[in-house]
Amino acid sequence: MCSLCKEYISKENVIYESHFWFVMFNRFPYLPGHIMLVPKRPIPNLEDITVEERVEMINELIDAQTLLINALQNKFGVTSSNIGINLGPNSGASIPTHLHIHLVPRRPNDSNFMHTCTFSGFGERHDPIMYDKMYSNARMWIIEEASKRKIKEKL
Ligand SMILES: [Zn+2]
User: Fold this and answer.
1) Cα 10 to Cα 151: distance, rounded to the nearest angstrom
2) For position 92, what pLDDT does the model report?
3) What is the rounded end-to-end Cα distance, in angstroms, of the chain?
4) 100 a catalytic residue
5) Domain locations in the chain as residue ranges
6) CA gap 65, 60 in Å, rounded
7) pLDDT in tens, 43-91
8) pTM
9) H-assigned helices in 19-152
10) Which of 19, 100, 115, 126 is labelled catalytic?
C-alpha cells in the first residue's frame, strides 16, 4: 500500500472526497496551500482512469481549483495557481504507482517555477517560523472554505 492509500485511510490530511476521488493536503507542500486531487483507486497512469472517473476528475479539478482561490485569494493574496501531474518513472513523481494531480496556489513574488519544483524558494522560506505560520493559516482557510461546500461530503 502506498503513502497516498494510507493517507486516504487515515484521513489526517484529507479535506473532502467524492465518489472516485479525494482532495488532500500535500504532506510536503511546494508552497503553503498545496493540495492534491487523488483517485481512490491506486492507478498509475491517466489511461487507467475509467470514463466515469474521467468525468468526475474534471469536475473535481475545477471544484478544487475554485476552492483554493476562494479560500486563499483575500486572506492570503493568492492570484494564480499551478496544476500538474508527474507521469512515468522519469517525471520526478515521488509516488509513481498512484496518480495524483498537484494544485499549488501562487502569490505575487512567492517563488518561480524552478524554485517551486525544487523546494528552493526564497522569501518566507528563509524564515521557518513565518513559513510554518503561513502553512498553518493556509491549511485552516482551506478547511474553512471546504466546510462551506454543501455538495461535498464532510469528513
Ligand atoms: Zn496508493
Assistant:
1) 22
2) 84
3) 22
4) yes
5) 3-150
6) 8
7) 999 999 999 999 999 999 999 999 999 999 999 999 999 999 999 878 8
8) 0.86
9) 51-76, 113-118, 128-147
10) 100
Residue 96 is placed in which grid cell?
Answer: 509513481
Distance 77 CA to ligand 1 centre (A): 33
Select the CATH number that applies to the domain covering 3-150 from these four: 3.30.428.10, 3.20.20.70, 3.40.980.10, 3.40.50.300. 3.30.428.10
H/E run at residue 15 = strand 14-17
Report CA(118)–ligand 1 centroid distance (Å): 23
Q: What is the spatial order of strands in the sheet that 101-106 belongs to?
A: 80-84, 101-106, 35-39, 21-25, 14-17, 153-154
Q: How far is the CA of 82 from the centre of ligand 1 (A)?
A: 23
Closest C-alpha to 24, from 34, 32, 35, 33: 35
Identify the residue whose cell numbers are 493556509: 138
- 3-state DSSP assignment of residue 86: coil
